[in-house]
Design brief:
Elements: H1 2-21, H2 25-35, H3 37-52, E1 63-69, E2 85-94, H4 99-165, H5 171-206, H6 229-239, H7 241-261, E3 268-276, E4 288-295, H8 304-371, H9 377-412
Antiparallel strand pairs: 1-2, 2-3, 3-4
Helix pairs in contact: 2-4, 3-4, 4-5, 4-7, 4-9, 6-8, 7-8, 8-9
Length: 417
Amino acid sequence: MNKIRILIIGLVIFISNSFAQHQSLRELIDLALQVSPELKMYQAKINASENRIQQNTNLPDPMLTLGVMSLPLPSFSFNKDMMTAKVVGLSQEFPFPGTLSAKENVNSKDFEIVKQEYNDKRNEIIKELTQSYYELIYIRKEIQLTGESRQLMKQILDVVRSMYSVADASQQNIFRVDLELTKMSDMLATLKSEEDEQLSAINSLLLRNPSDKIETDSLPEINFIQFNIDELISKAEANRPFLKGIQLAEEKEKLNQSAAEYDFYPMFKLSAQYAFRSEVEGMKPDNMISVMLDISLPLNYGGKVSAMVDETKSMQEMYREQYSASIQMLKREFGMRTAKLKSLKERIELVEQGSFIQAKENFKSALSSYQVGEIDFMNVIEAQDNLYTIEKNLYRLKTDYLKQIAELEFLTGTKMN
């Protein structure tokens, strides 16, 4: 009975796992974003920066003063001198009007900057998983094509052996087919290893075991797009979180400059004290109240405030140059990738409309001609190998095109439609 239960439980787990792995690329991306430790780290950083906004943007706590004034020694008597009093006081510091709101604005920018860091990391995870997924599709397609080619080669071997049995083919032809079959078996082993590598890469993003199976769809239909570098730059400026983060950092330094300039203005401290006086020699003196306003003198000793302001100006210049350098880098990247995409598009169309069709017809013709003794066996092998190579290369070109699109979507921060 226990064995049956264990078997049933194992079967349920197996079935559950099998169904769990049948996920589309979109579902895998959603899962990767959900479990990503890096995104969770950035989310915690967002929460921390949000909580930091209120830390330095409120008045400091008031101070309570308790004391004794003019207590005579060594008697410690409260009714011996008219000046002796028990004192209760309350004081509150106030920054110059506008100082706290300036600090709040600075902290709010930190919150916005971290959100852009989160979004850029999110887009990077999407890109990595998408490219690995497409590469896995390609490898599996190559495994399929190699397997089909190997099966076809076995059929050719049967034909050659039949012809050899009636002395219409040489033993050398049989050896040649066996050699091709061995090469294909070796290729399949290599491809299996590459498949495992891609599975491991995807599963690492999903926090799964490296060997967990993942079902893949076929490559999506390619809609060729006409790219313009200026349009791509405009998309990146409007959508790329990394660029937005640099702009926000520059804005933060402008706000830091405004906050630092408030140090040229005085700070205030308002205090009030109430003195309780005891009866002295039958006389009851009046209690007393004191109110004082302290004003700091912002003398900018050693130019410390001026240095803070100059630092913020330098930081603004740094972020402006970083933004310009990033745009320059993107122009170079977009130039390279649009040229690559144009080349891939032309090659895909050339293969689909020409060489792939020709290779299929050439192989059919070569196989038929060999069976009736019109051509040499080597022509069949070459025709079959040519068909396999062209079909594999066509899938490689399509995969590379889609991976380049995924890279452009990351660099621009938006989908390519």
